[in-house]
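ENTRY TYPE: paired fold submission
RECORD: A
CONTENT: sequence, then structure tokens
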Amino acid sequence: MASLPRADYDPRRIFLISCPSLPFFKHRRAVGVYAAGALFAIAHALFFDACALSAHAKPDTPTDTVPVHVDFVDWLPGIFTTLGMLIINLIDKERLLSQGSYGGEPNIIWRARLFLFIGFALMAGGLAGSVSLLVLKYIVPEYETRFQYYGFANVSQNVCLMLAAVTLWLAQHASSEYEYNLQL
């Protein structure tokens, strides 16, 4: 005897257990945007804290020197990740999904996807750069943990920026309380 599919089963679904949507929570978009902004602020606050600690670092004895400081090289991963986040979230999502020509110009979808790739490449390069800086500049020379914090703050900044980009991307796709979907 063959088993019959459940009445509420949709064969296009990937998972059998559906995640409940939150219809009672009508401010999803605003919460997502604020959460992305909070992650963005936390990311840069972590790195600026490391920069301030580096600028005011004192050696253990007056005859010693501070072995490592935050340089311009440490700023580059955060700059690349921030640029990638801006590029990704400035792209109109409808241009990525539309088939055919958009507004009379057939290459607009290809250009939007190219800029999306560039944005993701900048973000991935920023994260890879921060991890390589952590390992090569702070962990391999075996500095004290107070100096290794500079590298960990850099990696944390880039991870928070990437999470902020994903959160903002998802929040832009969430339906707003002012948006109506009328279909016939």
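RECORD: B
CONTENT: sequence, then structure tokens
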Amino acid sequence: MTASPTNGTPGAQERVRVLLADDQHLVRTGFRVILEVEDDIEVVGEAADGARAVTMARVTQPDVVLMDVEMPGMDGLEATRLITGEGPGAPAVLILTTFDRDDYLFAALRAGASGFLLKNGTPEELVEAIRVLARGDGLLAPEITRRVISTFARPGDPTGAARSGPDADAALGELTPREREALVLLAAGASNAEIAAAMHLGEATVKTHVSRVLAKLGLRDRVQAVVFAYENGVVRPGG
């Protein structure tokens, strides 16, 4: 896939490539109008259903896919799973929906989405979300993060976490005590500055710990670290 900018300023050397996936033509047109006025963003294609989104992602090699949930045929959740399952270099997926539903949220996160925004957000929020994902970070609105932390692995909940498997146990075993501490704080929604304060470290050291945690666990971003931590019992709601 096309390499995303790595100097912290997307577009300094190359533009962020975005694929639009939504079954409503007017919605896709609106997104295109919003994004194409930005010097650092390029819309490289459009798809009206999930199957087409998967194909277009392989053809256009975007950095970020803007994905609707409810589309005819293959929905956005299955398309997300297939796109993010392509391995290293797969694009980040930003889920956009008019439906503020936990089942969509949890399914999208488990499918590998790196961000989740409601369509009633502002154009500025959408543009910034794309830039965040292009930098390799994950993004959840604060109210969504709170719901993840409070309900993701709630006992008896149909969306509750699966228990840790051998692969996850082995990966967790590779973490140093400080890296595991950083993972716990990540799962609580702490920022790098908050992790640094809690661990009495500099932010540069925290960034190194977080990067190593993601690499050792085979995770794309902080959002997936939250999912992993709850699914594998590293942390529990209220714990």
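NOTES ON RECORD B: Residues 203-217 form the longest helix (15 residues). The chain is about 50% helix and 10% strand.
STATUS: closed
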